Amino acid sequence: FTVGQRRGLGGGFAEPLYVLEIRPERREVVVGTRDELYEDIVAVTGLNWLVEPPASGSRVRVQLRYRAPLVKGTLRCGGDHQVEVELDEAQPAVTPGQSAVFFDADDVVLGGGRIQRAYSRAGAA
Questions:
Q1: How far from chain centre, in Å, is Cα 18?
Q2: Mode of pairing for the β-strands spanning 82-92 and 28-32
Q3: Bridge-based pairing state of the strands 38-49 and 109-119
Q4: Is the pTM of this model over 0.90?
Q5: Confidence category of residue 115, pLDDT binned at 50, 70, 90
Q6: Got the DSSP string for 37-91?
Q7: Which residues contact residue 71 at a Cβ distance below 8 angstroms, ignoring those fewer than 6 apart?
Q8: DSSP label at 35?
Q9: 3-class DSSP state for residue 124?
Q10: Res. 124 pLDDT band, cuts 50 70 90
Q11: Per-residue model confidence as pLDDT tens digits over 71-99
């Protein structure tokens, strides 16, 4: 299974279900509705900066999957090797283990890392 997957989950539900999370240590696959796929905070680790790391609060654009459009957000630094990005607009199926690449306003690559986890501000409260 992969986050965002719809096929192969069986039927008989009032609305389509999607894979929201995979918990391999407990052999669980969490499913939910399409609306539950959207998250607006992304934790990124294993950072590799090509320039001086941006300061916390910097505005960036981030690509969260191959060939996906860039989305705007604000960096919140958590140390040399971790940041959180508060996205302006929630994105569907942000998947741990995939790459996140950061760009400035001029499409210059700043750096990137691996998505550790994603969640919604609404769920963080």
A1: 16
A2: unpaired
A3: antiparallel
A4: no
A5: very high
A6: GEEEEEEEEEEEESSSPPPTT-EEEEE-STTPPPEEEEEEE-STTEEEEEEEEEE
A7: 61, 62, 63, 64, 87, 88, 89, 91
A8: G
A9: helix
A10: low
A11: 999 999 876 689 999 999 999 989 899 99
How far apart (Å, rounded) are the C-alpha atoms in residues 104 and 65? Answer: 17
Is there a contact between 98 and 121 (Cβ–Cβ < 8 Å)?
no
Question: CA-CA distance, 51 to 81, in Å (whole number)?
Answer: 14
Distance of CA 81 to the CA centre of its chain: 16
Would you say residue 25 has pLDDT above 60?
yes
Q: How far, in Å, CA of 17 to CA of 7, rounded?
A: 9
Give the pLDDT mean for 67-73: 93
Between the CA atoms of 89, 114, 29 and 25, what dihedral angle is there, to the nearest 10 degrees?
Answer: -150
